[in-house]
Design goal:
The protein is mainly α. It contains 24 helices and two strands. A two-stranded antiparallel sheet has the order 1-2.
Length: 629
Amino acid sequence: MTSQSLVYLVALPLFGSALLLLGGKRTNRWGHLFATAISASAFGVGLYQFSVMLGQPDSQRALTQKLFSWISVGTFQVDAGLMVDQLSICFVLLITGVGTLIHIYSIAYMSHDLDRRRFFAYLNFFIAAMLLLVLGDSYLNLYVGWEGVGLASYLLIGFWNQKPTYATAAKKAFVANRVGDMGLSLAIMIAFATLGTVSFAGVKEHAGQASTGALTAIGIMLLVAATGKSAQFPLQAWLGDAMAGPTPVSALIHAATMVTAGVYLITRSNFIFDAAPTAQLAVAIIGAITLLFGAVIGMAKDDIKKALAASTMSQIGYMVLGAGLGPAGYAFAIMHLLTHGFFKAGMFLGAGSVMHGMNDEVNMRRFGGLRKFMPITFATFGLGYLAIIGVPPFAGFYSKDKIIEVAFNAGGIKGITLGAAALLGAAITAFYMTRVVILTFAGNKRWDEKAHPHESPILMWAPMVLLAVGSVASGFLFTRGDALRNWLAPVVEPMPVHEAELMSPAVVSILALALVVVGVGLAIIKYFLSEVPVVAPTDVTVFTRAARRDLMQDDFNEAVFMRPGQAITRGLVKTDVAVIDGAVRAVARLARGSGNVLRTTQTGFVRSYAMWIFLGAVGLVAAIWMVTL
């Protein structure tokens, strides 16, 4: 495969989406099968590209393809081009591989939906936009894919927009992402103004010529973009509500791919952050805050999808923390991103399977004992659970523990603080994820007679089984012989191994496992050994009430941003009405008044006109006489 075939990775799903949307009802019978085949074909192209890269030396693995000259204005020259290297191919395989499994799952999950063809068209469009995001060879090309996935997310979250709450959730996600996208726009502008280029290669080449202040500004703006797309503090409020969309959407967009785009952006821009320590530290701090923020929220959610959404927020916090630790952490951030793609997508599909068997019920307090009725769902969800809490030898043990280790070894107060936050997050994760498993699959049944739980069809559980395999094996494969770290080395340029470590890997693993045991034990005591009420108790602490309301994030955004924004808007409207529109109306009134005055001179009598002509002539003669004196 040559670089000229990179375009097929994006063109295939884009063609599939266009055909299904433009083909209309004529494609209803086979549209879902066609879209799935298209996604699988893109995965095949990605696999072949990966195999070709494996046969090349490190220096020749990156390939680029120029599609056409996009912008040519003076010194601003931008080509529409694609680039695949060791970093982007990881995302290509994740997007198309997990995406194809979710397409297969959706065939059964959406089988009774009258608009299934449109749903699959949107899925294909999302795959195309996400591939463009990770394959673009410049920040501007990435920006096109970045906006594309934002549009796809809006369409898929609001797919059932006949329900007002779903439409509202879609708009909330869209607006929150646009706020973050302003950061990416400003970063691109600052990069061009400072460095004269927006291509990755050009920015990397000229970064050494820019001031630390300019690079810090670019880095902070890139971080703002990442916080919006990856639901990080303070732009994380949209992710929980985004669970209104169909469950396959939650698995594909809000667990495995789109919400990890911010991690990709930071890692791709490693040459910016390595030269701007302040921006890099800000990345690590945001990640640490978010991993705790999401974990605390996850403890209080009774909606199974919202609990997993809070978990996603927290786990991406770990990835952002890893990326904020610089060259020592980039590879481990990507490793956790990839392992998370397996176990979290599997658990979201498991949640969809539970909903499928429980008449779309999402309240875990109305589940209980489902392991007997849904053994495959229980087994696959359970393997994902063991992976996310970091039990060896499951995937999360390898990736999350490495981030905790690197955090501690960052040194000084920074290392101790970030490492302690990551360890605490591991304990809370073990608690709330055990809570999810117990409330859903263990204990006595708490559902009413209308529910008839049953195992999902093979098209739904087969993808869950394959993702469960990834939850078990991926971490070991990535760390064996430092495979992933060595693979990514030409892109992220890892620093040498620490000569003196604050904490060895063994000590970190022991501490993490001890805290996991504590978290699991507390959850068992509270939710397995005690009676679980079907209705959530109201006599709870202020902390619990705050966690149920997402730690007041919507209240904060409303008080700090929305209400002042409304006040400013009202003031601008009044200014517009009083000053701008007032000036226009004053001109109109002046013209109308002048017309009314002049109209009185138009009497229709000939003698009046003759008098005015006579007076005009006298005035003209008098003026001439005065001038000639």
